[in-house]
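Appendix B, example 12.
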Amino acid sequence: MPRLLQRFPGHKSTNGELDVFGRLRREMDRLFEDFTQGFGHLTEPDLSFGLPTKVDVSESDDALTVAMELPGLDEKQVDVTLDHDVLVIKGEKKEEHEEKKKDYHLKERRWGSFERRIAVPFHADAAKVRASVKKGVLTVTVPKPAEAKAQIKKIEVKSAS
């Protein structure tokens, strides 16, 4: 008998063969069900509790703009700094939920933090950087200095023959 079958004794399928992968799948499903009990819906984008945050970075002739989804966070829970030419965005959320009813008492605490570092491709003036939160989206605008605007040159593309 192959080693894999010895490690995972399976059940006989309808045609009499060992169903090793079926048993392995059932065991993995059971393991994940046991692990995720008490976490609620893991499919919800709960970005403020340590999961990766979604970021859009765009650049125009005048500025670099960063938009980051931060559902449930307000401006007091977000910290934006410019460290040399790296934009650093940090946040932390703490949540406590308590529910008391006649038959039970439930108290849950969750917390998490995140940090994103985004390289700024020019020397930015930190005094001119602006950040705001609206409807769960942080928008940071880093204006380009005049010397960065002057460095942009259009290159003509020619046909190679």
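Helices lie at 3-7, 20-36, 146-150. Residues 1-8, 39-48 have pLDDT under 50 and may be disordered.
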